[in-house]
Amino acid sequence: MILANAGAGGQASGAAGGGFMIIWLVVLVALMYFMMIRPQKKEQKRVQAMLNDMHVGDAVVTSGGFYGIIIDITDEDVIVEFGNNKNCRIPMRKSAISEVERQSEAVETKEPDTKPAQPKESKKDKKQKKSKSNEKK
What we know:
Layout: H1 2-52, E1 59-62, E2 67-73, E3 77-82, E4 89-93, E5 97-101, H2 103-106, H3 123-136
Antiparallel strand pairs: 1-2, 1-5, 2-3, 3-4
């Protein structure tokens, strides 16, 4: 009788252990999805939006690290001008562009200061002022 009850209890605990194992695997797969796959999809969407929003005149950085300016755009390709030499124009795939900086962001306009610049006083000048004020007393 005791052995029969022990055998039945062993089967019940084995079934509970198997159910726990399945739940644990589901949790691990969900964790892997949220830690690896989902961020990668978000990055792909960000890059695709960046490439679709490129315009002529935007400054770009290629995947090779070259800085240039877009002078023409087609569906899958762009023509980028590198450096000051107007003859250095290279067609490349949009996927080779790693960063885009808007033309309006690239040219920063600085507003003039309304205050005139005040020259800073040196330590020597400060000492002379102190000595003059002490002499007056």
